[in-house]
Structures are given as structure tokens and as C-alpha cells.
Automatic annotation (TrEMBL):
Pathway stated in the Swiss-Prot or TrEMBL entry: One-carbon metabolism; tetrahydrofolate interconversion
GO cellular component: cytosol
Pfam family, one: THF_DHG_CYH
Domain Tetrahydrofolate dehydrogenase/cyclohydrolase NAD(P)-binding: 140-288
Classification via PROSITE patterns: THF_DHG_CYH_1, THF_DHG_CYH_2
Protein name: Bifunctional protein FolD
């Protein structure tokens, strides 16, 4: 058996089209342009690529993009002052601080300084609490993208066994909350989990968010399971030439695709969905701020 490929690239393009279709009447009928501010501290090359892509896709959807690039030695106080200004700026509906931050800056302090209504990453403690208690919140973009793909692939998720490998605040934990809210029976696995193989084999839905290249082989996958690979790992690719690299997920795609019912590739799976959901969250924030109906 060969699994169905879940095409995150095409799915994300569809979401971006819907976002753009929602943005147009906000402008023409209400004079509103949803605005996303992205703050990058330092010169981390991967973060620079993410920030550039976010800016481009924001503008392509007809929204306003405000990029704030600060030097790596920016003080915590200066960053907090910028967040205050963005919180007060009515043209900014969403604020995203690109992680990781340099060591001298307290990540939690900065995230919790963002107005929760503008916290389009959904990492503010208020949004975390709202999500955990089933109330309207801003939902973290990567897990939201995974959930949308799962619903599309499976329809109802009710009663399915879901295993999330990874317990980070930005992926694993919110992913587990979303699956629980969709009535899955959820297991969260992590580096101390005993017999991870058996845990994974029980999963109708297996979400890998670990950051270890190809650590989940096909024989850990239950036949017919739906596999969502969040991992983005750069590994050497000598076959492409000296010093070349390629991206792989946390799942060993070649063996898992033979066992799973459906699977996301890397690249082209979860990755494109994250920015699409960020744009959708920004439009939602703009609508909420102005008392207008939210996109579905
Ligand atoms: P973190 O490093 O914050 O968390 C990794 C998690 O994996 C931890 O909970 C850790 O457990 C667990 N883990 C580590 N080793 C093992 C192991 N051997 N067995 C089981 N669990 C293990 O990573 P993130 O959640 O931030 O990211 C995970 C991956 O997803 C990365 O590859 C990242 O690049 C990617 N990512 C992709 C995004 C996208 O847009 N597609 C967005 C965000 C992340 P413990 O808590 O016990 O240490």
C-alpha cells in the first residue's frame, strides 16, 4: 500500500486565496487593511528566511506588512518598548515576534507583553488558557495547519487515537489541545516516553514534532494511519554535490509512505500551512478588533 500524499502546498494556497477574498471587502467596504507586524531580533539565517516569506505572503494577500529588524544586542527593555508601540498602533492587528530570541531576552516576558488580541501566534498565556478551556482564542499557526489538514483528510476525528510526539509550547502541547477538542483520545510523547515504538503503533493519527531527522521509521506507524510530519531538519545531501543539504522531516518518509494511509511530505506539507494560518489569524484579529464577522 502507498499512502495518499497530503499536499500542504496546495492546501495553503487555497487558504491564502480565501484570506485574500476576505481582505478585499474589508478594504472596499470598511476602509480596513489587516496589518501584521513581524519582529526579528538578530541575524539567524533560518529566521530571516521565515520573516521574508511572511512579509511577501502578507503583501500578496493584500494586507499590510510591517517588518522590524533589530540587532542581536537589542535590550529586552527596547524590545518591550517596541511591543508597547505596536500594541497601541491601530494599523497593526497582528504581532509576531520571531523565535528564538537571543539568550539575554526573556522569551515568556516578551510574548506575554503582546496584547492577546494581537497575538496571532497564539503563544500568550491568555490564549494558551483560552484554548485549554475551550474558549475563543488565537490558535497557534502550525498546530492549526495540522488540524485543518487532518479534518480535510479524515472528516470527523472523534474517537480516534492521536499520538503527538513532542511537548513544546509552540507545537506539541497546542496540537494535543486541538486534537482533544476534536474528541480524539490523545497521548503526548516526549524524550522520556517509554517504548515509544508501541505508543506510536497505537496511533490512528501520528503527529511528529521532535526536530530529529527521520527518527520515526515506517514500522512505528500503524497500517492506514494518518501521519503529520511537523519536523524540518536540514541534513547533508552529498548526492546533490559537495556541501549541499536537503530538508527532511522527523518521519522516515520512504518507509512510512508504504504503511500509512495518508502522510504529509517534507517539504511541502506542514510548512506552507503555518504562514497561511498566520495570515488567516491576522484577518480574524482585524475583524474581532472592528466588530466584524470573522472568516470561517
Ligand atoms: P522543541 O525542541 O521545542 O521540542 C521537541 C520535542 O521533542 C520535545 O518535547 C522533546 O522532548 C521531544 N523529543 C526530543 N527527542 C525525542 C526523542 N528521542 N523521542 C521522543 N521525543 C523527543 O521543538 P519544536 O516543537 O519547536 O519543533 C519540533 C520540530 O518541528 C522541529 O523540527 C522544528 O523545526 C519543526 N517546526 C516546524 C514548523 C513548521 O512550520 N512546519 C513550525 C515549528 C516547528 P522533551 O520535552 O522531553 O525534551
Amino acid at each position: 500500500m502507498t499512502a495518499t500524499l497530503i499536499d500542504g502546498k496546495a492546501f495553503a494556497a487555497g487558504i491564502r486565496e480565501k484570506v485574500a477574498a476576505h481582505v478585499a471587502p474589508l478594504k472596499s467596504d470598511h476602509g480596513l487593511t489587516p496589518g501584521l507586524a513581524v519582529v526579528l531580533v538578530g541575524e539567524d539565517p533560518a529566521s530571516q528566511v521565515y520573516v521574508r516569506n511572511k512579509g511577501e505572503q502578507t503583501r500578496e494577500a493584500g494586507m499590510a506588512s510591517f517588518e522590524h529588524r533589530l540587532s542581536a544586542d537589542t535590550s529586552e527593555a527596547d524590545l518591550l518598548a517596541l511591543i508597547d508601540r505596536l500594541n497601541a498602533d491601530p494599523s497593526v492587528h497582528g504581532i509576531l515576534v520571531q523565535l528564538p530570541l537571543p539568550d539575554h531576552i526573556g522569551e515568556a516576558k516578551v510574548i506575554n507583553a503582546i496584547d492577546p488580541a494581537k497575538d496571532v501566534d497564539g503563544f500568550h498565556i491568555s490564549n494558551v488558557g483560552l484554548l485549554a478551556t475551550g474558549q475563543k482564542s488565537m490558535v497557534p499557526c502550525t498546530p492549526l495547519g495540522c488540524l485543518l489538514m487532518l479534518r480535510d483528510a479524515l472528516g470527523s476525528l472523534s474517537g480516534l487515537n492521536a499520538v503527538v510526539v513532542g511537548r513544546s509550547n509552540i507545537v506539541g502541547k497546542p496540537m494535543a489541545q486541538l486534537l482533544l477538542a476534536d474528541s480524539c483520545t490523545v497521548t503526548i510523547a516526549h524524550s522520556r516516553t517509554r517504548d515509544l515504538l508501541e505508543v506510536c503503533r497505537g496511533a490512528d493519527i501520528l503527529v511528529a514534532a521532535v526536530g530529529r531527522p527521520q527518527m520515526i521509521p515506517g514500522d512505528w506507524v500503524k497500517p492506514g494511519a494518518t501521519v503529520i510530519d511537523v519536523g524540518i531538519n536540514r541534513v547533508p545531501a552529498p548526492e546533490k554535490g559537495e556541501g549541499k543539504t536537503r530538508l527532511v522531516g522527523d518521519v522516515d518518509f520512504a518507509s512510512a509512505v508504504e504503511v500509512a494511509g495518508a502522510i504529509t511530505p517534507v517539504p511541502g506539507g506542514v510548512g506552507p500551512m503555518t504562514i497561511a494560518c498566520l495570515l488567516a489569524n491576522t484577518v480574524t484579529a482585524c475583524c474581532r478588533a472592528n466588530g466584524l464577522p470573522e472568516p470561517e
